[in-house]
Amino acid sequence: MKILYFASLKENLNTAHDEINVVSPVSISSIKKQLIEKYGAQYFPENIMCAVNHEMANESTKVCESDEVAFFPPVTGG
Predict the structure, then answer these.
(1) How far apart are CA 59 and CA 47, in angstroms?
(2) Is pLDDT above 80 for 68?
(3) How many CA atoms, within 13 angstroms, populate the side-chain half-sphere of residue 31?
(4) Pairing, β 49-52 against β 55-57
(5) pLDDT at 30 over 90
(6) In sequence order, what are the residues at sequence separation of 6 or more whose Cβ sits closer than 8 angstroms to the Cβ of residue 7?
(7) Which fold has domain 2-72?
(8) Which region, left, alpha or beta, applies to residue 38 given φ > 0 means left and ψ of -120 to 50 means alpha?
């Protein structure tokens, strides 16, 4: 499964993407746990945002091997 990283997350991890192996279907929560084990919890806080195939998703969203998952920090504005 292709995992994409954007904005400061991409900079902090020093990579724009990962390929991970999952048993489909899997929840975003499970993917996040795998990524926390690899990179550390500081990069995947509770308020991190996620999209699946270019649509916003939440931790209970189920994804398959062919889906594209993206993580990005919350956006602030003003």
Answers:
(1) 11
(2) yes
(3) 33
(4) antiparallel
(5) yes
(6) 72, 73, 75
(7) Ubiquitin-like (UB roll) (3.10.20)
(8) alpha
d(CA 27, CA 36): 14
In contact, 69 and 6? CB cutoff 8 Å = no
Cα gap 50→71, rounded to integer Å: 5
Mean pLDDT of 52-73: 95
What's the predicted TM-score (pTM) here?
0.89
* Predicted local distance difference test score (pLDDT) of residue 76: 65
Among 1, 9, 3, 30, which residue's Cα sits nearest to residue 75? 9
Residue length of the chain: 78
Distance CA 27, CA 59 (A): 7
Listed by start position, the domains of the chain span 2-72
